[in-house]
């Protein structure tokens, strides 16, 4: 088997430019660069509207990734980094964005970005990233009221899903769907720790469990853990999910079922929330700087 | 009177055959396979052969360890009683080191801190069985990332005098951090030391929840790892005694408890 097909955790990288938008007409051009532990995201916004973005894996050297992901977002637009009026860095590697005018925590950026993506009715943002999970309460302006975060343990993060994608040999983008393919739900994997959960699941596979059943059992365990975090911070409607794991239907549908609350449908890629929030903060900062605010 | 202690751990079965509550006749161990009962029975047979004994010469068998209930009706073991690990740990360690007040037991998948009174009874205890970062699995996982055998990890760490911080507390995250360190050309011995320092920090913070009182003993399979001793001593600010055959202390405790049970009849 080739190297490429054996990397089940590796998700595709992508970029996009909004059609029918021209940066030459924009007064303020800002960028948000979100260097996550696993994925890096860059957004370019024209007067506070999303224009272009890119999503790629974070490499070993965050500075290089920050430059690469931003250049890729600008790719094909004729924009240069010099054209950006203001840049805000966020995420786990935010201090490593060499051209950023300022850094802002990902908590603030995710709340602000969720407000942009889902609208002002958002009160609870669940962000499930590659190596952390945050439950954020915010107000009608997208300002953070309170939050809780797990960034110490892989359980309940995208990283746990990557481990399971490799274990049962299913590409990470299909893992959620595969976990929903059986009609009956098994009992959740009993171990919290990803290392122990993996060993437990290996034993289940050897006992003859289908990989779909093992996937369902791990998704259920992960959902239980996320709900613990959400319950601690308190959940108020409207409820939304951001971060890479928001794309996993196996997690999202079970969260909806077990919480009894339907998360709002995203109008944009929910992995961009942090980078969008950062670009919006960049706009506000620039306006302040030039005396517009 | 001969008694047996069977400690069914997450990774290994350890068995001690004991004469009159003091002389160890034999020790035997084996990996826990898919069928826990079968693995334990095989080790038991091995112990009987080693000591040149028959099953009916063993008056009482006490089992401990996370798999202790899985071997209940398995011949030839036919366990008489089961005891929790902390009780067996306290009993076995007190027998070897009568001055012990704190026992630290680090196994493959669990870590325990046990406070012991002047009679070798458990006063208080703390257990981590939920997180791999405070157990032998942590070193094992990191050894795989470093491409070093588990046995070589400790000696390798002892070669380093440099302190590199490890930010990750989680075993899964630490694995990526180790890979990043390897790519940044950090020396293997420095990484190995950082791994042991991190693990010692985890164990120390667990043990400090029950408090540390001298003498402090370290038992369990991880006690065999010399790379783990200096950082644990430093973290707890105390000397630490490691008995001979530290991985058999739980089984010894169980065999001692078997002897006591019989004596009371």
Task: Tell me about this structure.
The complex is a heterodimer of chains A (293) and B (265). Chain A has helices at 62-74, 106-118, 158-168, 175-179, 194-206, 211-233, 249-259, 273-289; strands at residues 14-17, 29-35, 39-46, 49-57, 86-90, 102-103, 124-128, 133-138, 144-150, 239-242. Chain A is an alpha/beta fold. In chain A, strand 8 (133-138) and strand 9 form a beta hairpin. With 265 residues, chain B is of the alpha/beta class. In chain B, 39% of the residues lie in helices and 21% in strands. Chain B contains eight helices and nine strands. Chain B has helices spanning 36-51, 85-96, 136-146, 150-158, 171-183, 188-207, 229-236, 249-263; strands spanning 2-8, 12-19, 23-31, 58-64, 81-82, 102-106, 111-116, 122-128, 216-219. The mean pLDDT of chain B is 95. Chains A and B meet through helix 3 and helix 5 of A and helix 5 of B.
Oligomeric assembly: heterodimer
C-alpha termini separation of chain A? 59 Å
Strand content of chain B: 15-25%
Could you give the order of strands across the largest sheet of chain B?
3-2-1-4-5
Q: Topology of this structure?
A:
The complex is a heterodimer of chains A (293) and B (265).
Chain A: E1 14-17, E2 29-35, E3 39-46, E4 49-57, H1 62-74, E5 86-90, E6 102-103, H2 106-118, E7 124-128, E8 133-138, E9 144-150, H3 158-168, H4 175-179, H5 194-206, H6 211-233, E10 239-242, H7 249-259, H8 273-289
Chain B: E1 2-8, E2 12-19, E3 23-31, H1 36-51, E4 58-64, E5 81-82, H2 85-96, E6 102-106, E7 111-116, E8 122-128, H3 136-146, H4 150-158, H5 171-183, H6 188-207, E9 216-219, H7 229-236, H8 249-263
Parallel strand pairs in B: 1-4, 4-5, 6-9
Antiparallel strand pairs in B: 1-2, 2-3, 6-7, 7-8
Helix pairs in contact in B: 2-8, 3-5, 3-6, 4-6, 6-7
In short:
The complex is a heterodimer of chains A (293) and B (265). Chain A is α/β, with parallel strands linked by helices and 293 residues long.
């Amino acid at each position: 088997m080739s190297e490429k097909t054996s990397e089940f955790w590796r998700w595709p990288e992508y970029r996009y430019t909004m059609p029918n938008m021209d940066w030459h007409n924009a007064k303020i051009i800002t960028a948000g660069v979100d260097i996550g532990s696993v994925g890096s995201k860059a957004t370019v916004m024209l007067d506070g509207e999303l224009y272009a973005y890119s999503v790629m894996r974070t490499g070993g050297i965050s500075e290089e990734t920050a430059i690469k992901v931003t250049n890729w977002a600008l790719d094909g637009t004729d924009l240069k980094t010099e054209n950006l009026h203001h840049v805000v860095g966020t995420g786990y590697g935010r201090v490593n964005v060499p051209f950023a005018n300022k850094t802002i925590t990902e908590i603030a950026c995710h709340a602000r970005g969720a407000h942009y993506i889902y609208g002002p009715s958002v009160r609870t943002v669940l962000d499930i990233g590659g190596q952390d999970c945050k439950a954020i309460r915010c107000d009608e302006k997208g300002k953070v009221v309170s939050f809780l975060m797990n960034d110490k343990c892989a359980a309940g993060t995208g990283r746990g899903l990557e481990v399971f994608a490799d274990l049962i040999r299913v590409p990470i983008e299909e893992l959620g769907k595969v976990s929903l393919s059986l009609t009956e739900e098994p009992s959740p994997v009993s171990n919290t720790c990803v290392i122990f959960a993996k060993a437990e699941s290996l034993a289940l596979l050897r006992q003859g469990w289908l990989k779909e059943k093992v996937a369902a059992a791990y998704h259920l365990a992960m959902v239980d853990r996320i709900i613990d975090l959400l319950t601690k911070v308190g959940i108020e409607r409207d409820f939304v999910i951001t971060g890479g794991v928001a794309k996993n239907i196996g997690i999202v549908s079970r969260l909806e079922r077990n919480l009894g609350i339907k998360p709002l449908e995203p109008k944009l890629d929910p992995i961009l929330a942090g980078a969008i929030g950062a670009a919006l903060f960049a706009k506000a900062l620039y306006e302040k700087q030039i005396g517009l605010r | 009177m001969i008694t047996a202690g069977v400690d069914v751990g997450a990774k290994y079965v350890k068995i001690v055959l004991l004469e009159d509550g003091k002389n160890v006749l034999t020790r035997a161990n084996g990996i826990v396979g898919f069928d826990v009962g079968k693995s334990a029975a095989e080790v038991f047979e091995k112990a009987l052969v080693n000591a040149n004994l028959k099953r009916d010469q063993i008056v009482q068998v006490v089992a401990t360890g996370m798999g202790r209930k899985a071997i209940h009706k398995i011949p030839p073991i036919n366990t008489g009683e089961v005891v929790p690990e902390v009780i067996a740990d306290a009993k076995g360690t007190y027998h070897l080191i009568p001055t012990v007040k704190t026992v630290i037991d680090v196994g493959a998948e669990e870590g325990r801190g046990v406070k012991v009174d002047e009679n070798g009874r458990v006063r208080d205890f703390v257990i981590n069985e939920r997180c791999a970062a405070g157990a032998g699995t942590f070193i094992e996982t990191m050894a795989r990332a470093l491409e070093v055998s588990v046995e070589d990890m400790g000696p390798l760490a002892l070669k380093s005098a440099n302190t590199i911080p490890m930010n990750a507390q989680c075993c899964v995250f630490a694995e990526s951090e180790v890979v990043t360190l390897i790519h940044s050309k950090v020396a293997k011995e420095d990484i190995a030391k950082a791994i042991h320092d991190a693990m010692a920090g985890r164990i120390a913070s667990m043990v400090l929840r029950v408090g540390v009182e001298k003498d402090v003993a370290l038992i369990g399979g991880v006690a065999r790892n010399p790379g783990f001793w200096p950082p644990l001593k430093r973290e707890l600010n105390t000397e630490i005694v490691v008995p001979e055959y530290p991985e058999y202390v739980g089984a010894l405790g169980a065999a001692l408890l078997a002897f006591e049970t019989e004596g009371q009849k």
